[in-house]
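Blackboard transcription, Thursday session:
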Amino acid sequence: MSKIVKIVSLIILNPIIIFGLYIISHGHLTPGGGFQGGVIIASAVVLILIAFENNIRLSKWLFRLFESLGLIFFIVLALPGIFKNTFFYNFLAQTNGIFLGRTIHFGINPGYLNSAGVIPLMNLAVGIEVASALSLVIILMIKKYD
Amino acid sequence: MTDKNKKHSRKKAFHESKASLWVKTASLTILSIFFVSIIFFVHPFGRPEAVEMDDYFIKNAQRQTGSNNVVSGIVFDYRGLDTLGEATILFAAVLGISLISIRKKFFIDR
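(Written on the board underneath:)
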């Protein structure tokens, strides 16, 4: 692509990634969540791949590592619930603790970030997994085999 | 021998014959009648039949999971195993695509 497209895509790259991280981190308060935020971050990678046609080389092993780590993190977060009740039991929520354990009652509230137990961490895990997986798909498909 | 075989193979296939046209038109008309008639028998919007589970989630999701977003609470807490399956499907899809690219590199080019 032309020089204008390259520079504008580099300027716009950081706001897109920050918006995706915001959607992921506020998944338990506002519409959105891990999957949607991950897709937004993957779209930033796709923008860079399209703007710098084949002159940029993204390391594939990093995306593979992060994809596997996201899935492992998701399962590891689900496991400790076994000791309390069942698999996927939300063992941090509504315990009045400091870390993500603020008690929430039924009704309107301003929206506290440290509220929903395991759910924000699971959002983060799914977001990492989806972002790296979708960008890996595009990287593998856009590559030309010579 | 070869000429006879060729003549046998040159027999008209079913998708080129006139009978297939009738089959296509008949199936299309039946399908269109079905889809058009379903518009008048569809359930009214905003009045679900199974209300008990919806009411339970709306009343208790915020108190039990602690998340203001009820959808997020259902997806990651009540139906966590479902989300695990979804993530596994995405993982398997990426695994298949990377396997195809590796095969192209090592087997076809040889």
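Lecturer's comment: The two ends of chain A are 21 Å apart (CA to CA).
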